[in-house]
Design brief:
This protein is mostly helical. About 55% of the residues lie in helices and about 0% in strands. It is built from 4 helices and no strands. α1 packs across α2 and α1 packs across α4. The radius of gyration is 12 Å and the shape is globular. The model has no long low-confidence stretch (mean pLDDT about 90).
Length: about 90
């Protein structure tokens, strides 16, 4: 799971062009939106597209479930991992 979290951190940094941030600067439990990293709705859309391209995920933009998945890097990693198990 740590490797997947690292991969998602790198994807987040490249998709959102956060050049001043390193993967090790991001705590896997840290909130991604508002407090924490302080991402906004545009960042969420860009990250969602990057996740769709990389992992083939599909998610509803305005669902409570999607908001839960986007709570932290760890939550995203668990979502990607569960999606992989379903697809396998």
């Amino acid at each position: 799971m740590q490797a997947l979290e690292q991969e998602i951190k790198e994807l987040l940094i490249s998709a959102l062009q956060l050049e001043d941030l390193k993967p090790e600067d991001i705590d896997a439990e840290q909130a991604l939106f508002v407090e924490g990293l302080g991402l906004d709705s545009i960042d969420a859309l860009e990250l969602g597209l990057a996740l769709q391209k990389r992992y083939g995920l599909s998610m509803a933009a305005d669902s409570a479930e999607t908001r839960r998945h986007f709570a932290s890097i760890r939550a995203l990693a668990q979502f990607v991992d569960s999606h992989r198990k379903i697809a396998a």
